[in-house]
Amino acid sequence: MSTAAERYLQAARRESTTRRYQQAVAHYEVGWGGFLPASSDSIVRYLAEHADALSISTLRGNLAALARWHLNHGFVDPTKAPQVRDVLRGIQALHPRPVR
Fold it and tell me: What number of helices (H) and strands (E) belong to the chain?
């Protein structure tokens, strides 16, 4: 890849986003004990076990980080599975939090 292309790729993602994604992946692996690459079933269990403690926006951010990890490493993205999206919708319905 050319130097110019690499520079643009680096500029596309802010350092804070990269750090946040690293924290989310660490939370999944170390904090929860999940394995990567993940299955959609393990992602569903992860969401269900953190539904009470984490906000829906945090859960969505963690899903984005896990999706990015899978895509960067050449794996199919398990966060796009229908049951993952359905569980996320259910969490949002049962644990509504007002937008600040």
Answer: 5, 0
